Amino acid sequence: MNIHISHELSMIQMNASRSAELNSNVEAFLKAGGTIQELAPFTYSPPPIRHDPEPIKRSAPRRRAAAPIKVERITQRDIEREERARVKAALVERIKGLAETMTQTEVHQLTGINRRKLLTLSNDYDFSYQKPERSGAYDSARLEQMAARDARLAERIRAYLELGITRRQCCGRLAIGNKAFERIIAAHGIDYPKARQGCTSCVA
After folding, report:
1. Lowest CB count within 10 Å: 30, 66, 81, 203, which one?
2. Are 118 and 150 found together in one domain?
């Protein structure tokens, strides 16, 4: 304890001599015109508190919703569509069967289906109707009609012949041409005199 106190006293005595020397030096400096500038005391400013940004919260990945299971539903429209397809298929088979032995006209008369639809079915489903044995202006019905018409005209030509009118006048009253007139009188053996030279015969 005493040793510690004596050590501090010796330090004080040594510092006192140094302080006296320092004071004398300061006085000499001031007398020589020197000035002492007093500086502001040093103040410690702690650095600003650093605030770290909050970590970004990542949302959990969105799970893709499972595709809904497609359930086939048979609606009334589907039923009607299938029924129409079945009826049409049966109709096509029937028409194809008839077309093997019948003409388009005969199928039309039997089924009542119009000719355009029958033609469309044959084009769409690749089948054809039987061809008629005779057609156009030379079928039997047409020839019979022409023969009956010529016979009636022949009777009228004979009547005009008895009246003494010319071929030209006869053609005009019958509304026929010269070729038809010549054909009728040749077919029915009528000797109809021609007009005098310089006059024309029938006018078409």
Report:
1. 66
2. no
Residue-number span of the structural domain to which 117 is assigned: 76-124
For the chain, the maximum distance between any two Cα atoms, rounded to a whole number of angstroms, is 194
- The C-alpha atoms of residue 150 and residue 152 are separated, in whole angstroms, by 5
Q: Is residue 10 part of a domain?
A: no
Q: How many helices (H) and strands (E) does the chain have?
A: 7, 0
What does the buried/exposed string (b/e) look like for 153-182 if buried means 16 or more CB atoms within 10 Å of the residue's CB? bbeebeebbeeeebbbebbeebebeeebbe
Task: Let me know if residue 196 belongs to a domain.
Answer: no
How many domains does the chain fold into?
2
**Residue 71 within any structural domain of the chain:** no
List the end-to-end C-alpha distance of the chain, in Å, as a whole number: 172
Distance CA 174, CA 155 (A): 11
pLDDT at 42: 67
Give the rounded distance of the alpha carbon of 1 from its chain centre.
114
Mean pLDDT, consecutive 10-residue stretches, the chain (204 aa), reads 55 70 77 72 74 73 68 74 89 89 82 85 90 63 82 93 91 84 92 70 44
Q: Are both 118 and 88 inside the same structural domain?
A: yes
**Residue 203 pLDDT:** 43
